Amino acid sequence: MKFYNLLIKFRFWLGILSIILAVTINITNGFWPAFILYFIAIIAILSHFFIGPLRLIQEPMEQGNVDEVEKILNMVWFPNLLYKPVRSTYYTIKGNLAMMKQDFDAAEKHLKKSNELGAALPEAEGANKLQLGMMAMQKGDLKQAEQYVRAAIRAGIPDKESEAVAYLSMCQIFMNKREFRAAKDFFRKAKACKPTTKQVVDQIKEIEKYISRIPG
User: Fold this and answer.
1) Range of 41's domain?
2) Helix 66-73 and helix 84-100, axial crossing angle in degrees, nearest 10
3) For the CA atoms of 59, 60, 64, 65, what is the dihedral angle to 10 degrees?
């Protein structure tokens, strides 16, 4: 696995080296002895631009090594050349990193690009749309937030914690619209997810204090 990761990391330069060697052999011994090196060079260079190094990101992400993740992303020189599902993943990761830095404008820009491309996995699409919905709520654009969160729920959300957040967001949106029956329905769905994250549990407790007194 380590050898394979090194191959991915340096395949562009290995491709360049293969071209140089191929040209040298081509001049001295003819085309066919150099053919395999030309073939290796083409595969290495094209895979660098069309597939990229995103496979290398998993380990540093699990370790929380943000600097290493950013270094790997910086190896993508021309994102528009990436194969569509890979490009979508690239922009999702860029968006998540921007959110960690609280650069919400950049996060929104990257996540919208990923959303337009379509996620490689349905659950990733749901998580992406939920993040866009959260950012729209922070900006006070509840109409846009509702559209994104509804789309996230339809696409499917990968874990119960995030699903509870989605339903709580819809509850807050409908409370603001004074559609209390719908708000209560979304609140019940949020509780049914049985979240354990302190922030989400605290939010449920806070809403529960007054939602039972509201008509509808």
Assistant:
1) 1-50
2) 140
3) 160
